[in-house]
Specification:
By secondary structure, the chain is an all-alpha fold. It folds into two domains: about 170 residues, no CATH class; about 100 residues. Helix content is about 60%, strand content about 5%. The chain contains 19 helices and four strands. The protein has a two-stranded antiparallel ribbon with strand order 1-2. Strands 3-4 form a two-stranded antiparallel ribbon. Strand 3 and strand 4 form a beta hairpin. The longest helix has 20 residues. The protein is globular and about 65 Å long. The termini are far apart. About 40% of the residues are buried.
């Protein structure tokens, strides 16, 4: 039996609070509609939807229409029609997780325009914070399909990531972070930024790359976008996510990108022992480079033209007292 039966009752965008004025919008007095007698428990609906899909990365034909069927309702649930600075009074994280886990496996065989209508247009129009929350759900779902070669092509995967990142860079959350990158990232931006960098961002845990070694070659086309983003806001979170990506790669396709990102951090935090020593960025960097040299030889640094910036970073880490940097300097001189 198809899961698509009676449509969910239409709903207006959730009540919102304007971030700048902190004044709640007046509620319009409306005549109750016939649908008002129905109530949708979107948390229960999320369980219902996820049970149908399971762990499949290609949605069965009978289930794929559900993605389009609930597209507009989901967009409205997440604040479509509100101002960019508005905050939702309620979050729909469970439903978003289940719904976008269905959207990504439903893209196989669709044209670029059809893909955009299904998973870009209903998302790019959301208020800033709601958009970031949805982006953090959507991107890993898209990555799971693309990195496992289950129907989403490279061109579409790159284009979708670029479009979502471009919208992220217009949020007030990102603009504030770009002006003052440092040790922390605002919570809505944190999860979205982690997803862009192929990482999961756990509470009070270091970010961790969710791409397996087998999937890393398919992530190489994302490097130009990631390099550009890392250069715009060098900070602790970006440094740790970049190193997490590098550590997950069995070869060195991400070497130039990673060294460039860490070199940008060096320019911004040249004397910051808290950044390089206390948070372990220097130690992690040395471990990553040593691993590459051990696996591929120091020629990897010459092949990618990063020997000079690596030596500059190592020299600075020795000055700051990173013990591992001295060992790496010895390895570089061999």
């Amino acid at each position: 039996m198809s899961p698509i039966g009676r449509p969910f009752p239409p709903r207006e965008s959730a009540s919102a609070r304007n971030v700048l004025s902190a004044v709640r919008r007046p509620q319009r007095v409306m005549k109750p509609k016939a649908e008002a007698q129905f109530y949708v428990d979107h948390q229960a609906a999320a369980i219902w939807l996820s049970k149908f899909l399971g762990r499949e990365l290609v949605a069965p034909d009978w289930l794929r229409p559900a993605a389009k069927h609930y597209r507009d309702w989901t967009s409205t649930l997440n604040g479509a029609g509100l101002n960019q600075s508005d905050e939702l009074s309620q979050r729909a994280s469970e439903w978003n997780s289940a719904y976008f886990d269905l959207v990504a496996p439903s893209l196989s065989g669709l044209t670029a325009d059809a893909i955009d209508r299904l998973c870009l247009d209903p998302v790019l129009c959301l208020p800033d914070e709601a958009f970031l929350d949805v982006m953090a759900e959507l991107l890993p779902s898209l990555d799971a399909v693309y990195l496992n070669d289950k129907g989403l092509g490279e061109a579409d995967a790159v284009r979708l990531r670029a479009a979502l990142t471009e919208r992220m860079e217009k949020t007030s959350n990102w603009l504030n972070h770009e002006r003052r990158p440092g040790y922390g990232v605002e919570r809505h931006l944190s999860n979205a930024l982690a997803a862009v960098f192929l990482n999961s961002d756990g509470f009070r845990q270091a970010p961790r790359c969710y791409v397996t070694a087998l999937g890393m070659p398919r992530a190489v086309p994302f490097i130009p976008l990631l390099a550009d983003l890392a250069a715009k806001a060098p900070g602790l979170s970006v440094a740790l996510m970049v190193l997490s990506i590098g550590s997950a790669s069995p070869d060195y396709p991400f070497l130039e990108f990673g060294v460039g990102a860490l070199n940008a951090c060096l320019k911004r935090f040249p004397d910051d022992t808290k950044f390089w020593v206390d948070y372990g960025v220097g130690k992690k960097f040395c471990g990553w480079i040593e691993g590459i040299i051990s696996a591929s030889g120091s020629k990897a640094l010459d092949d990618t033209s990063v020997r000079a910036p690596v030596e500059e970073i190592v020299s600075n880490l020795i000055r700051l007292g990173v013990v591992e940097a001295a060992n790496l300097e010895t390895a570089l001189s061999r």
